[in-house]
Design a protein that fits this description.
Length: 478
């Protein structure tokens, strides 16, 4: 036997859980038909705030009255000492056996009660400290009954004065509430009404904003991303509304990117897949070795094109979806630029690719993301490889606080009204599907995303070589 009752434990848990649920029902506004309940929201706030305020007021009143008790006692003693002395002098004019009858006569002349008791009867009414004051000839005050005690000379008799408060006098105010209680009730009633009015004018716009945000969130959850921007009436929910707007806009952009990628990739996949199907049909119908090798080479090229399309699409989607944080490091810029151009020089076939860093200061160091920036530069070079006739020139210069890389070619160039449009995804000026000049229209879009990551930009213009010039520009020192 362990001394515990499993049945009792099982019964206790539901009871505790039920208590917790009851608490949350009171403390949280409940829903009514999918809406926030204004009345419950108001009363929950009112009960919480008013209850806290009343508790704080009573605690503060208790602390202040306790702290001032000594000061109040001293003031009462000095205030009543003259009256008590006059009463004692009047009693001392008569023998002790007449004090009882005489105090009754004097009592009729005062608003509060007077009396005489034996000293030993006060041991149970007063504290030890009050008894010491009384025996020392001082006035003892009993706070629970608002009564004063003063010893009559060296006798065993004690003069009792009080209760001093009219509300504590049993012969007065028998048919109505004490004055101090009536004042307290009136004061707290006024405070409660004023607080309720002020709270109502505060809660109502809060409730309207909650309803607006709830409805907007429901529309977004239903897929309606064109829902109107919530107009809030209080600054309390303004940051939340701004965040909700930003989130909605970001979701729209992601959906647009997803649709764009889906449509673009599905369109781009058709050409290499159609070529591969055609090559397979031709392969099954020929026995010539040279022709079979040519068809195999075509299919391998198509597979390479599909692989490049998938890799490029994933790269673009990552930049659109995640907006990764840049990790800058300082590099010797001339050496870095030469190495990056050399890494893709072979793709230029017979083109003359040169690198010009003569306009850069000697040993210039530039801050860049070593992982992301090569994407931008290599995509510009691949674009130049497609359209250049004979020459490609890569140059760099320092423009104030910014570093700029220019990629020039001697190709057909870009019309001025199309120079901004070419940085959009799946945009190509030529409609050719030939592998020598075709592409997916993602390289320049990736280059611009990389430069935005660096706080810079990518632009297109005309080249001194007669073709197109693409420029990457960003802050040299981040």
């Amino acid at each position: 036997m362990t001394g515990t009752d499993p049945a009792a434990d099982k019964a206790g848990k539901p009871a505790n859980q039920g208590l917790a649920r009851s608490f949350f029902r009171v403390s949280l506004p409940r829903w009514r038909g999918g809406r926030y309940s204004l009345s419950k929201l108001f009363f929950n706030f009112y009960l919480l705030a008013m209850g806290s305020f009343v508790a704080i007021a009573f605690i503060a009143d208790f602390i202040i009255s306790t702290a001032q008790q000594g000061i109040t006692d001293d003031y009462a003693r000095r205030f009543m000492r003259g009256t008590i002395t006059l009463i004692e002098d009047e009693l001392f004019r008569y023998p002790r056996r007449q004090w009882e009858s005489k105090i009754k006569e004097i009592d009729g002349k005062f608003y509060y009660k007077l009396g005489i008791v034996e000293r030993r009867s006060l041991d149970t009414r007063l504290t030890s400290a009050q008894v010491e004051k009384l025996d020392a000839g001082d006035i003892a005050i009993a706070h629970d009954h608002d009564v004063m005690y003063s010893r009559l000379g060296t006798s065993s008799k004690v003069l009792v004065v009080g209760p001093l408060s009219a509300s504590r006098n049993p012969d007065e105010h028998k048919e109505r509430l004490p004055l101090d209680l009536r004042l307290r009730l009136l004061t707290w009633s006024l405070i409660g009404v004023i607080f309720a009015i002020a709270l109502w004018f505060w809660v109502r716009p809060v409730w309207r904003d909650l309803e607006t945000l709830r409805q907007t969130a429901r529309d977004l959850g239903d897929g309606n991303f064109d829902a109107p921007t919530p107009a809030v009436h209080t600054q309390l929910f303004a940051p939340l509304a701004d965040t909700l707007n930003s989130m909605t806009e970001r979701v729209r952009q992601l959906l647009a990117t997803h649709r764009e990628l889906s449509c673009g990739i599905s369109h781009e996949l058709r050409t290499p897949i159609a070529r591969m199907r055609f090559a397979l049909e031709m392969l099954s119908g020929t026995d010539e070795l040279a022709e079979r090798q040519r068809l195999w080479a075509m299919m391998e090229a198509d597979l390479d094109e599909l692989d490049q399309l998938i890799d490029t699409s994933l790269t673009y989607a990552r930049f659109e979806r995640e907006a990764p944080e840049a990790h800058f490091s300082s590099v010797r810029f001339a050496d870095w630029l030469s190495d990056e151009v050399d890494s893709v020089r072979l793709l230029g076939r017979q083109l003359n690719v040169t690198v010009d860093t003569t306009q850069l200061p000697e040993n210039l160091c530039v801050d860049l993301d070593r992982k992301a920036m090569p994407y931008a530069l290599r995509n510009l070079l691949r674009n130049a490889f497609k359209y250049a006739s004979q020459e490609i020139r890569v140059s760099a210069e320092l423009l104030g606080e910014q570093i700029a890389i220019h990629v020039d070619d001697d190709g057909i160039g870009i019309p001025e009204d199309e120079r901004e449009h070419v940085f959009s995804a799946f945009t190509r000026l030529d409609r050719s599907r030939d592998r020598s000049t075709g592409g997916y229209g993602l390289g320049l879009a990736i280059a611009r995303r990389v430069l935005e990551l660096h706080g810079g930009t990518a632009v297109a213009g005309s080249s001194p070589l007669g073709g197109a010039r693409f420029t990457l520009r960003w802050q040299a020192h981040q």
